Amino acid sequence: MSEGNPPSATPSAKSKKNKKKAAKAKADSKADSKADSKADEHAEDAPGDHDNTENEPHDANEDPIQVPESNGAKLNTIDGSLPDRSVNNQGPVPTSDVPSGTDIHSDPASDGTEPKDRFDALVRDRDSLRAEVADMRKSLEELQSKHTADMEALQQKLDDAESKKEQAETQFQMLLERVNTIKSQLGERLKEDAEELALARSQIEDLEDENNNLKDELNSKSTQLVELSEDSAEKEKELSTLRDRTSLSQQNWLKEKEELLEQESYLQSEFEQAKEAMHNWEILAMEERSIRENLNEKVGDLEEQLSSLRDGYERATHERDTQQSTVDGLQRALQEIQLARKQELRELVESSDSQLEDLRRSLREAQKQATDADKALQNAQEEIERVRPFEKEVKEKNLLIGKLRHEAVTLNDHLTKALRFLKKGKPEDNVDRHIVTNHFLHFLALDRSDPKKFQILQLIAALLGWNDEQREQAGLARPGTSSMPGKLRVPGTPLRTPSTPNLATEFMDNGASSKETLAELWSNFLEQEAEAVKNIAEKKRICILDIEMEGVKQVKRTDLNARFLFLAPPSLEVLEQRLRGRGTETEESLQKRLTQARNELEYAKQPAAHDKIVVNDDLEKAYVELRDWVVDGGKFGAAQ
What we know:
By secondary structure, this protein is mainly alpha-helical. 71% of the residues lie in helices and 1% in strands.
C-alpha cells in the first residue's frame, strides 16, 4: 500500500486479514530497530483498534413498521434498520518514523468507504423518517382530531431524536476531523479518539433504539386510529338508521295531521249546516208565532186602514175640487188610479172578509179536531193534515193583507205630497223633490265608470227640464249640437241590473215630457217596463231588477209575478265599517245611506216584504245562495 492513502472501515473478514498483515509487518519491523518497531507498533495498533471498533457486527435486520394510511391507502414500509457507522480516517498516516524497507498493507475499500456509506444511509434513513412522519401527521390529523396532542408529543420526540441525531452527526464529523488531525500530528491520542468514537457509536445506537421505540409507539397509534375509524363507521350507520326512523315518523305525523284537518273541515261544514238549519227553524217559528198572535189585530188594523184610506180619498177629492183649474191632467190620472185602487181594495176586502170567515170556521173546526185528537192519536194526525192547508192559506192571506196595507200607506203619502207641491206652484214647474233627491244621491253614490250614472243624470235633466246649454255643461250633449228628444232604448239583454232611477230614464222623454204630470210619467214608465219584463220572461230568460224599497213597493202592484230578494248586511255597524273603508263617502252622504239602509232593514223585517233574505257576511257563500235562488229552474219572471 502506498503512503498517503487514508485508512477506512471494512467488514469483519477483511479486518482479520489486515490484522494478520499488520502483525507480520510488526514482526518484520522489530528486526530493524527497536525505536522504529515502537513507532510501527503505535502506527499499526491504532488502526487495528480502530478497525476492531469499526468492524463490530451490527444487526441491520430490524422489523419494518407498517403504518396504515388514514384514507384507506397503505403507507410505505419504513425500514428501521440503520447501518453501522464508522469513523472515516482520511488523514494521512505519518510515515516519518517508518523505515523505508517496511511495507504497510491496508485495504482502501475497508478503511475509507465504509463510514461514508453508513453516513449516507443514515442521512437517507433520516430523510425517509422525516417524510413518513409528515405523512403520518397528516393522516392522523384527518382521522381523529382528539389525538392531536399525542401526535404533537410524538412529533416532539421525533424532533428531539432528529436533533440528537444531528448532534451525533456533528459530533461524528468533529470526531473524524479530530481523528485525522490526531493521525497526522499526534498518534498517541488515537486511543482516546477511538474511545470517543466508541462513545459516539453507543450514542447512535441509543438513538436508534429510541427511534425504534418511537416507531413502535407509532404502530400502536396507527392501530388505535384504525379502531377509531371502525367506531366512526358504526356511529355513521347508527346515525343513518336514526335519520330513517325520524323521516318515517315525520311522514306518519304529516298523514295524521292531514286526516285531522280533513275531519275538522268536515265537522266545521256540518256545524255550519246545522247552524243555518237552526236559524231557519227559528225564523219559521217566530213567523208562525207572530202570525197566530197578530191575526185578530191585523184584521182590526186592516179595517182602520181602510177607513183612513177612505178619509184620505175624500180629502184628496176635496182638495182636487179646489184646485180643479190647475191640476186637470193630474186629476184625471188620479181618478183613474183611485178607481182602480178602490175596485181592487173592494175586491180584496170582500175576498179577505170571506176568507177570514172561512179561516175562522176552519180554525173552529181545527180546535174541535184538536180536542178530539187527545182521545185518539191516529184521528189527531189526520186532522192535523187537514189543518195544514188552512194554515198555509192564512199565511198567504196575511202576506196579502200586509201588501195592501203598505200599498195604501204609500199611495196616501204620494198623493198628499203631490197635492202639496201642486198647490205651491204652476203645474209645469212642479217636481217631486223626494224623487230628484233619491236620483241625485244615487248619482253621487255610483262609481264614475258605472253606466247607470249617465242614465241617472239624464233622468234628472228630464225632471228639471234642462235646456241644451245646461245639458252641454252637464256632459249630456256635445258642444255645438242640440239634443234631440226621444226615448231611451229599453235594454234587450237577458241579464241586467238597473236601479229605480235607471228604470225611469229608459222611458222618460227629455224635453217633451216636461209638460206631463209625474203621475202620468210614472204610470207610463211602469206600463212600458212591465211590458219589457214580460217580453223577456216570454223568451224564457231571467230579468233581474236592482231596485230600492220604493221600487219594490211599486213592482208589487203590478202583475209581473216577481220574486223579491233582499241582500242584507250582517249589521248596520258592519255596513258602516265597509262604507268608511272605501273612502268614497262624505260624512253627510254616509249618514244618508245609513238612514236609507236602516229603513230598508226595517221594511225587510215585515212579513211578506221579500221572498228571500241573503246576509252578505261571506261573499262566496252569499253569491252561491243568490245564484241558486235566482236560477231556480228558470222560474223567475215566468207567468204562472
